[in-house]
Amino acid sequence: MKKLGRNEPCHCGSGKKYKNCHLKSEDNTKGKNKVFILVALLILFAIMGVLIANMNDKNYSGAPGPAPEGKVWSAEHGHWHDAR
User: Where are any strands of DSSP class E within the chain?
Assistant: First the structure.
C-alpha cells in the first residue's frame, strides 16, 4: 500500500482530503504509543531504583541463608568466615 499524500482523497471514501479526514487521528495514535512507551520506561526505572535502594539497605546482609554454626557472613568478601 502506497503512502497517501496530505492532499490526496482519503482512503476511507469520504471524498475529503486525507489531511482533513484521517491524518489527525492516525497522528494521534502515534502520539499515544510514544506516551505509553515513555510511561512504561518511567515505571521500569522506578522499580529498578527501589530494588537498588533495597540492596544498599544497611540491614541487607547479602548472606545466602541462615548462618552455619560458628560462622559469620562477610559482606565485604561475599562468603562465610569463622566467628571469633
Answer: 71-74, 79-82
DSSP 30-42: HHHHHHHHHHHHH
Whether pTM > 0.70 for this model: the answer is no
According to the model, what pLDDT value does residue 76 have?
A: 84
Region for residue 70 given its phi and psi (left: phi exceeds 0; alpha: psi -120 to 50; beta: otherwise): left
Closest CA to 21 of 6, 41, 3, 43: 6
Burial of residue 50, with CB atoms counted within 10 A of its CB: 0-12 exposed, 13-18 middle, 19 or more buried: exposed
Cell of 72: 559469620
